[in-house]
Amino acid sequence: MCQRCFWATGVTELETVYHDQEWGRPQKDDRVLFEFLILEAAQAGLSWRTVLEKREGYRRHYFDFDPEKVARISTESAEAMLLDPAIIRNRRKVESSIENARIFLQIQQEHGSFAQFIWQFVDYQPRQNHVTDYRDIPAETEQSKAMSKALKKLGMRFVGPTICYAFMQAVGMVNDHETSCTAFSACSAGGAQFSLD
Fold it and tell me: Is 22 noted as a catalytic residue in this protein?
């Protein structure tokens, strides 16, 4: 029987597949990073299952998470999105995601890629946390606080330290799989081979 992290045990197939195939895998593709920036912000105050169930709706409305197209979403289109139950219909989250896309593009222009900017908060190398008990996983860290402060300074919203840490976990900036989880080794190996080059 496959051993998984506590949070991925006894859950839906959607969550299991996400845990097994995505969570904690180091990502440097800007479109993937943008997707998780949007989804983690959308999740604030809700369950991750809710976000996963609406992920296809987000892919449709957010042009498969193309930041250039998201940055150009009109007020009229945003209003239409808020009528569609395929996404989380929170006006502040939708409006901030469009503004965040514009800032995302500015970061890309200034740093060459969003990956180059965001990975600086872990010194460009995934952190291997060797978690043995999920209850020891923090909600935020000094690194996520620094990331949050930097993104907020640039004008992004829904990027508090807790959201930033969830983002870091999702895109493999930190490996918070429990050491007993079968995905821990795969993410560790991916981290060891990781390079932005």
Answer: no
CA distance 18 to 25: 11
What's the rounded Cα separation, in Å, for the pair 147 and 60?
A: 28
Q: 153 and 95 in contact (C-beta within 8 Å)?
A: no
Mean pLDDT value across the chain: 97
Q: Which of 15, 23, 35, 48 is catalytic?
A: 48
C-alpha span between 127 and 147 (Å, rounded)? 15
Of the residues 15, 18, 119, 165, which is catalytic?
18
Please tell me the distance from the alpha carbon of residue 34 to that of residue 149, in angstroms, as a whole number: 18
With contact defined as beta carbons under 8 Å apart, do 60 and 86 qualify?
yes
Known active-site residue 40 = yes
Q: What is the pTM of this model?
A: 0.97
